[in-house]
Amino acid sequence: MGLLDEDRLFPLEGRARDLARALYDGIRDLPIVSPHGHTNPRWFAEDQPFPDPAQLFVTPDHYVFRMLCSQGIALTDLGVPRVDGGATETDGRTIWRLFARHYHLLRGTPSRLWLDHSFQHVFGIDRRLSADTADWYYDHIADCLSRPEFRPRALFDRFNIEVIATTEPATDDLRWHRMIRESGWNGRVVTAYRPDGVVDPEMAGFADNVALLGQQTGFDTASWGGYLDAHRARRAFFKDHGATSSDHGHATARTEDLPQADAAALFGKALRGHCTPDEADAFRGQMLTEMARMSLEDGLVLQIHPGARRNHSDPVMAAHGRDKGFDIPGRTDYVAALRPLLNAVGMRPDLTVILFTLDETSYSRELAPLAGVYPCLRLGPPWWFHDSPEGMMRFRQMATETAGFYNTVGFNDDTRAFCSIPARHDVARRVDCSFLATLVATGRLHEEEASELAHDLTYGLAKKAYKL
């Protein structure tokens, strides 16, 4: 008996369930298009075995270790490294046993679905993880990881991934992407331009990062014009390594369209470290508009991921650094915040701006009406805390009536956890088929239209939106 119900996430009502199952059967084996994520390109460049089960499933996965942390388990006991190099648990089996003893904490969460899917479909496991089965699990997965068919490139092919996008900082040398390209392997791994470190005055090392940007490009990044030209050069470098998008993770969705003299003065204050918090936010907002204009020049899709109140715990930030599970969603305004950018370029159908949110209250009130009228706007799928069966269904229910389906961009998994990629796409496919089946069963959609939409939501929209 497997870990997963074959009809999971389908409607309970008979006709709708049958429709959902039929729709899903028509798209379940389509290739995976993963247009935005955070897998490590080094995996595919070097194609070395993953170290051990704990390093694959526990230590790097903030979805997992934040839940265990909430129940009083120290991050050091889960192998999460300290910024000062201090002692953390390094024995994979010890970490795995601790994880297995607390696996029940993930009941009812999307992480449980993703993990069980990985255990069953990637590693062929049909028994539940618990303290009693922990060592058997560890030995079985470790044995699998020692085999060639479980190396990154083999799993890439087995997962039926057509293309995957990683995300690198603007100053990254992209050595691993270059190695992939020169290796002759036919797997398609592209990068995405993430300039946060050189557009956010509140990020540690901002001025040094901007100076490095100048060194890499040969432009004078102490001047506003040279700084913008340096971005253009780096974007071209990223495009040469396969990039079709840029990505911007700002605290707010604020945009600005200042006169260039005012923008230059604000940039000068940012370089000198003299910006107030409001001025820093204004500068980030100005750069979103500048990046949108650059997208009109070079064709990169602009992704905006706002609303995360990052590194909420000062003690965890001090001990373990950034991105350790303490990023918390916050209320986000889009209507007023995006108006400067949209007044500047919003009516351009040759520009694609993909909006994401951690604030579900904005779906029907702000995001769907905006995407339902501005030619440049598209809505990204439910993200992060809402990358879940209920979150995906709420998105479809709240956004579709106003934005329709074709102002959305399908699904992206946005993950560092490689083995969860097919699991996440499977959840999205099942939820979308369930939503479409309900529309058919309630007389709002023809069955043949639902079949076309299932294909588009699974495959076509992502390829089109991200120019893949």
UniProtKB/TrEMBL annotation:
Coiled-coil residues: none
Keywords: Isomerase
Enzyme class, broadest EC rank: isomerase
Pathway membership, UniProt: Carbohydrate metabolism; pentose and glucuronate interconversion
Catalysed reactions listed for this entry: D-glucuronate = D-fructuronate; aldehydo-D-galacturonate = keto-D-tagaturonate
Signal sequence, renumbered to the chain: none
GO MF entry, a single one: glucuronate isomerase activity
The protein's Enzyme Commission number: 5.3.1.12
Pfam families: UxaC
Cross-referenced InterPro entries: Metal_Hydrolase (IPR032466), Uronate_isomerase (IPR003766)
NCBIfam families documented for this protein: PRK02925.1
Family affiliation: Belongs to the metallo-dependent hydrolases superfamily. Uronate isomerase family.
Name the UniProt record assigns to this protein: Uronate isomerase
Source species: Paracoccus fontiphilus
Gene symbol of the encoding locus: uxaC
